[in-house]
């Protein structure tokens, strides 16, 4: 309950930021529910010291698909989302580490060096359908596990955070 109230307070502060702060690097304004907030070492923002995205804003970035099996689902699935490197470029991230946090406050650290072509995506669809919270959504960091043995390790599996809702870019 406290985590939910904290997220509500954060969303209200961000909404106030939309109305009162002009940004030099406009990323657009979310029209729907904010599902991802990125803070820290970024130059691009659309809220006070943050880049916030609704689902349509993420879909507007170049979509990438990864077809793979996972340790948490049965069979092979096709995940659609934005490549992590594209998102980081979009917000002009300047750090070396991503602190990724889920809706339930579970957190992992992902090195920015993972964000490369052929690397992870922030998935917002599985098999062409939006992912509900029950299905590990609305956002899930997916690596192309089936494409290379370098993605099939406990370290990489631990970085595959689901129910992602915020990231902080750090040095």
Automatic annotation (TrEMBL):
Domain Oxidoreductase molybdopterin-binding stretches: 67-144
InterPro entries listed in its UniProt record: OxRdtase_Mopterin-bd_dom, OxRdtase_Mopterin-bd_sf
The keyword Signal is assigned to this record: yes
Keyword check for Signal: yes
Keywords, alphabetical: Signal
Pfam families: Oxidored_molyb (PF00174)
Signal peptide extent: 1-24
Domain of life: Bacteria
UniProt protein name: Oxidoreductase
């Amino acid at each position: 309950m406290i985590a939910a109230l904290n997220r509500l307070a954060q969303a209200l502060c961000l909404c106030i930021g939309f109305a009162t702060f002009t940004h030099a690097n406009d990323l657009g304004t979310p029209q729907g529910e904010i599902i991802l907030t990125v803070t820290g070492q970024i130059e691009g923002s659309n809220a006070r010291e943050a880049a916030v995205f609704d689902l349509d804003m993420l879909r507007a970035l170049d979509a990438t698909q990864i077809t793979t099996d996972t340790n948490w689902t049965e069979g092979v699935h096709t995940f659609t989302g934005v490549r992590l490197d594209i998102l980081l470029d979009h917000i002009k991230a300047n750090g070396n580490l991503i602190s990724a946090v889920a809706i339930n406050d579970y957190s992992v650290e992902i090195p920015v060096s993972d964000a490369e072509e052929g690397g992870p995506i922030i998935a917002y669809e599985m098999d062409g359908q939006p992912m509900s919270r029950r299905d590990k959504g609305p956002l899930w960091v997916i690596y192309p596990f089936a494409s290379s043995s370098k993605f099939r390790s406990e370290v990489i599996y631990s970085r595959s955070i689901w129910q992602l809702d915020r990231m902080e870019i750090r040095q």
